[in-house]
Amino acid sequence: MAQRIVIENCAIATVDADDTEYASGYMVVADNRIESLGAGKAPEGLEDVVRRIDATGHLVTPGLVNTHHHFYQWLTRGLATDHNLFNWLVALYPTWARIDEQMTYTAAQGSLATLARGGVTTALDHHYVFPKGSGDLSGAIIRAARETGIRFTLARGSMDRSEKDGGLPPDFAVETLEGALAATEATVDEHHDDSFDAMTQVAVAPCSPFSVSTELMQQGAELARRKGVRLHTHGSETVEEEQFCKELFGMGPTDYFESTGWLGEDVWMAHCVHMNDSDIAAFARTKTGVAHCPSSNARLAAGIARVPDMLAAGVPVGLGVDGTASNESGELHTELRNALLINRLGAHREAALNARQALRLGTYGGAQVLGRAREIGSLEPGKLADLVLWRLDTLAHASIADPVTALVFGAAAPVTASFVGGRQIAENGRLLHVDEDAIARSTREEARRLARIAAQG
Ligand SMILES: [Zn+2]
Q: Judging by DSSP bridges, how do beta strands 387-391 and 317-319 pair with one another?
């Protein structure tokens, strides 16, 4: 028998295909799915109602979907703060190369807790640093996600182009081609779930053209397609990357991706800042997705991605926090605002993005690039009950009439409740299944331990 939760008296932004909204509406959740929603009060006579929430003063939206992150960087926030991407990578790789299983687990806890308390219901970690003998890092990250209660994709990364081959990472921080492929395949076999309500999925995710061999790009794509999982990497992040690709491969990043099998509807790429018209057309033609990371791009002075042009061309676009060594806040709800504001500094000025488009990037757009738009990303009957109650009747937002404008243009809104598959994971900005204060303490201890080990060289 279905257990029902009824949410009433709230504004609802469904982010469905028609952008349907209700100024005052209701939603009925039955077990892990949305059963019904609409204007006014919930239908009378519903059976097995275990909870009734009066959400007066709230906006209900789909849970936010994060499409790009590096959890391990939680332990190296606030370092190399005035660097561009390449100098920042060179400064931090020697420290990153010293991570172990306990550090990785703790960093994942910190990253996940911050995402979840801010309205993220589907998280992603692109993890690509696997130092020799460092333990089961993928297993540790997935364990942390399960404990938080969040829906999760592990993008199992890899690097095999170190300093001796013209790459940026130190030699001891990379895997061999064969080792990386075998470990990635084993991670897919052990953890990937392709069911409708999957809590854990795995993607194949070599780090970037400048830290990965052409063979690993090609064979990684073949592996992903053989296994039926998605492909993720970094692309076209900086001017320097474009020059690197031209010198090494004789072509720009998008052509290089195409030549290695890395354009397609099962691929999404982080950043895509330096894209010309034909690059955008190639992404649109192949339905390759983009993880837009506005704060990180600003932090590293990478530039402004052409999101309005991508959307106009039909490219799927989601939002990403990116690693917290280049976005110390680690919060996704602030990225709605930053995506809107930063894109208005680009060519389209005030017409670049509006509040509803920004909300769509952080919800449905994210679900699209993760290949989960059938299940999540909008509030519609039959979809999974991944949703957030944002409180908009306090000092921060009460004088703003339109709730979506308040959420996107206003200060970060308090999260009263957040549900993943009908299970509540956060209440009044606190997490229900993990101890936030204990996580804060252990992240400080592990960050100090990593700094100490790295200082020994
Ligand atoms: Zn990244």
A: unpaired
315-371 pLDDT, tens digit each? 999 999 999 999 999 999 999 999 999 999 999 999 999 999 999 999 999 999 999
CA of 330 to the centre of ligand 1 (A): 12
**DSSP string of 358-405, one letter each residue:** HHHIIIIIHHHHTT-TTTSSS--TTSB--EEEEE-SSTTTTT-SSHHH
> By the 8 A CB rule, do 30 and 3 touch?
yes
pLDDT (tens digit per residue) in 210-227: 899 999 999 999 999 999
Helices then strands, each counted (H, E), the chain: 15, 17
| pTM for this prediction | 0.97
270 CA → ligand 1 middle, Å? 6
For residues 408 and 343, what is the distance between their CA atoms, to the nearest angstrom?
14
- The CA 273 to ligand 1 mean position distance, Å, reads 12
Q: Which two tokens stand for residue 110?
A: 């910190």
Residues around ligand 1, an ion, CB closer than 5 A: 270, 322
